[in-house]
Amino acid sequence: MKKGEESRQRLIECAAELFWKNGYSATGISEILKQTDLPKGSFHFYFKSKDDLATAVTEYYQKILLEQFQNSSQGNDWESFIEEIFDFLSERTNGQTFAGCPYAVMGMETALSKPAVASVFMEGLKKFEQIFQEVLLCSGLSPDHAKILSQRMLSIYQGYFLLGRISADTSYLKNAKKNMIEMYREYRALLSRFPVGSSANVK
Q1: CA dist 171 to 85, 158, 161, Å?
Q2: At what angle do helices 102-110 and 143-167 cross, to 10 degrees?
Q3: Dihedral through CA 165, CA 167, CA 169, CA 170, nearest 10?
Q4: Which residues have CB under 8 Å from 153's CB, separation 6+?
Q5: How far apart are CA 35 and CA 14, in angstroms?
Q6: What is the pTM of this model?
Q7: How far is residue 186's CA from residue 128's CA, in Å, rounded to a whole number?
Q8: How far is CA 131 from CA 116, 145, 179, 181, in A?
Q9: pLDDT confidence tier of residue 187, bands split at 50, 70 and 90
């Protein structure tokens, strides 16, 4: 990596950490520069604005989170997938303050004041749902049922991560994992009771 690329990456990684833990609005450009020990001119050389930096940060989050989720989805059924991603998440939060999901944290904070920035983070959340849906399809659910359940799984995932951030309690990770597996089993059990062609629907 060239020196210029390295400086840009340092700004992104530092901003990603500060935005995630302290919030987008509470993190100033001056703080990012101070922590990276880079001159003010370097920021404006790489980014037009703080909002522009936020877009680059979403790409960084995608690399460290979504790519891991995508890799874990390959060849795994739902329960194996959940086990693997929560092992990864537990390892990342070990000994650290639990900050929740960066996409949801940033999206909620910027939703009203900076909708353009929030929309970028919303795209990230949609990618989580898409990965969930793909794994559920590979686990034997029909496209319709995989779509319904992936939406529920995203709600469970984000709900527990929000509670974990508010309380700084990592036990919510375990609860999220447990409930995402139980929800899958319960849904499959319902489908077995009301097979395709029956008059009952699972919604």
Answers
A1: 15, 14, 10
A2: 80
A3: -20
A4: 129, 132, 136, 180, 183, 184
A5: 7
A6: 0.85
A7: 21
A8: 24, 14, 18, 16
A9: very high
